[in-house]
Design a protein that fits this description.
Layout lengths: L5 H9 L5 H11 L4 H23 L6 H24 L13 H4 L6 H19 L3 H7 L5 E3 L7 E4 L2 E4 L4 E4 L4 E7 L5 H21 L7 E7 L13 H24 L3 H4 L9 H5 L19
Parallel strand pairs: 5-6
Antiparallel strand pairs: 1-4, 2-3, 4-5
Helix pairs in contact: 3-4, 3-6
C-alpha cells in the first residue's frame, strides 16, 4: 500500500485523528471491502469455518452450502447497517464483517450478481475440499491445526517494526510448519509471485513468534481455480532479508516524517497521492481528492 499510494497508507493509518466529516468518511471507508473481492472473502470464511468445525468436532460440516448462504446474508446486513449509520453520521456500528463498497456507495448489483458471488464462493470451497488438505488435516494432531480466530490480526515485532501477519491457515508440527494461503482468482505468473511474496511475510512471523528456522518452513499458495494441485516452497533467504530491510527503511522514514511534522495537515504532504489513476479507481477512499481525478467521477 505504501509503495502503490503513500496517501492511501496515510489515510488508512492516521486520518482517524482528523476532525469533522472528512475523518468520519475516511473511518467509514477504511472498513470497506470491494464487491469484486467479496466472493473470495466469503470463500475464506467458509474454508475457515470448515477447519474450525473439524478441529472442534472431528467431523466435517455437511451443511456448508447453507452456512455460506447465511454468512452472505450477514455480510449484506452489516453493509446496510453501515450505510444507514453513514447516511446520518451516526456512530458506526460494531459489525462482524467488512461492509461491501457497493452498498456504501449505493451502486448495488442486482440479485443475479449476488447469486453469482454465492456460487463462486461455494465453488471455491468445493475446490478446497477436492484438494488433499482435508485428509492432511484429518491426519494432523489437533494442536497442529493453526487457524486464526475471526477478527484476529496476529502481530510480531521485527527489528522494532510491528508487522501484522494475517495468514489463512498453517499446519504447525514440532520441526516443520506449512503456511497456506487460499487464492480464488486466476493463477497468473504475476499473481503467483505476489502470493509467494505475501507468504514470505508470514514466514517471518513464524520465525519470530513460533521460533522456526527458515529451512523448517514451507509456503503453499493454493489457487482454488486450478486442478487442485499446489506446490510447497521453502522461503528464499534473500527475499526474507529484503522484506525485513524494506520494513526497517519504511518505518524509519515514517518516524522521521512524524518527528518533523507533528501536525497531520503537514504530515499528510509527506505521503503524496499516486499518479496512477488505476490505483485511485480501485481505492475505497473516495473522499480523497485523488478519486476526483478519474474522468466522470467526483469525490464523495
Amino acid at each position: 500500500m505504501l509503495l502503490k499510494c503513500p496517501r492511501r497508507y496515510f489515510l488508512n493509518a492516521y486520518a482517524f485523528q482528523f476532525e469533522g466529516d472528512f475523518a468520519y468518511d475516511v473511518q467509514a471507508q477504511k472498513k470497506l471491502t470491494f464487491w469484486n473481492a467479496w466472493a473470495g472473502q466469503l470463500a475464506d470464511d467458509g474454508i475457515s469455518e470448515a477447519i474450525r468445525h473439524f478441529k472442534k468436532h472431528h467431523v466435517w460440516r455437511q451443511d456448508l452450502d447453507q452456512w455460506l448462504k447465511e454468512r452472505a446474508r450477514v455480510w449484506v446486513q452489516d453493509s446496510y447497517a453501515w450505510r444507514r449509520a453513514a447516511n446520518v453520521r451516526d456512530p458506526l456500528p460494531d459489525v462482524e464483517t467488512q461492509p461491501i463498497d457497493a452498498y456504501y456507495f449505493n451502486t448495488i448489483p442486482d440479485q443475479a450478481a449476488h447469486l453469482e458471488v454465492l456460487e463462486k464462493a461455494r465453488s471455491a470451497v468445493r475446490a478446497w475440499y477436492a484438494t488433499d488438505l482435508p485428509s492432511r488435516i484429518e491426519s494432523a494432531p489437533a494442536e497442529a491445526i493453526q487457524i486464526r480466530d475471526s477478527g484476529e490480526f496476529p502481530v510480531a515485532t521485527h527489528d522494532g517494526v510491528p508487522v501484522y501477519a494475517s495468514y489463512d491457515f498453517a499446519i504447525r508440527l514440532r520441526d516443520r510448519i506449512t503456511i497456506f494461503d487460499w487464492k480464488t482468482g486466476k493463477i497468473t505468473p504475476e499473481n503467483a509471485e505476489k502470493a509467494l511474496e505475501q507468504l514470505h511475510w508470514y514466514a517471518l512471523f513464524a520465525m519470530q513468534v513460533w521460533g522456526y528456522q527458515s529451512d523448517q518452513i514451507r509456503l503453499a499458495p493454493v489457487f482454488l481455480s486450478t486442478n487442485y494441485a499446489y506446490d510447497e516452497t521453502e522461503p528464499d533467504p534473500q527475499t526474507l532479508q529484503g522484506i525485513r530491510e524494506s520494513w526497517k527503511t519504511r518505518h524509519r522514514e515514517i518516524k522521521l516524517h512524524m518527528e518533523k511534522f507533528p501536525y497531520l495537515t503537514d504530515l499528510q504532504e509527506c505521503f503524496p497521492m499516486t499518479e496512477n489513476l488505476r490505483e485511485c479507481a480501485s481505492c475505497v477512499f473516495r473522499s480523497c481528492p485523488g478519486f476526483g481525478r478519474i474522468p466522470g467521477t467526483a469525490a464523495v
